[in-house]
# Entry
Amino acid sequence: MAYTSAISMCGGPAMYMQSNNWLSYVPLLLGLFIVGVVLWNYKGTRSILAAAIAIAGFLLVLLTHQLIISSAYYQWGTVLMFLAIWLNSNMLAFFKFLSKSLPIGKSS
# Structure
């Protein structure tokens, strides 16, 4: 669900901020949902770091939505939330797989 929410936010500010209606609040609700899912799927220190990254991403989206910062930061906020989800789910397993699969640093 968290990945789906992050991908839904990738439409960008052009889609959500065309006019000031209820649809413009969808990214904010999805961002809060992502933070909640990361905290709900608690895995210790990794989840705390992931939640901090997700909150930073949410703040970028929120500040963009409120026109406090440039709309260019919307994408950065979305990327941070996606990375937070990945960190809290299977990022470590992915890097372990890569380190075992790639011959980098291994002597033959």
